[in-house]
Amino acid sequence: MPVSLLERTALVTGAGRGVGRGIALDLARHGAKVVVNDLGGTLDGEGADLSVAESVAREIEAAGGVAAANTGDVTDSEDAYAMVRQAIDLWGRLDIVVSNAGILRDRALHNLPEADWAAVLAVHLTGGYNLLHHAWPAFRQQHYGRVVLTTSNSGFLGNFGQSNYAAAKAGLIGLMNVAKLEGEKYNVMVNCLNPGAATRMTTAVSAMTPEREAAMRPELVAPAVTYLCSDSCQSSGMIINSGGGAFGRAAIVQNERVPIADATADDVEARWDEITSLESAEHWWSVRETRAAHEAAREAQA
Ligand SMILES: NC(=O)c1ccc[n+]([C@@H]2O[C@H](COP(=O)([O-])OP(=O)(O)OC[C@H]3O[C@@H](n4cnc5c(N)ncnc54)[C@H](O)[C@@H]3O)[C@@H](O)[C@H]2O)c1
Question: Does residue 57 have its Cβ closer than 6 Å to ligand 1?
Answer without folding.
Answer: no
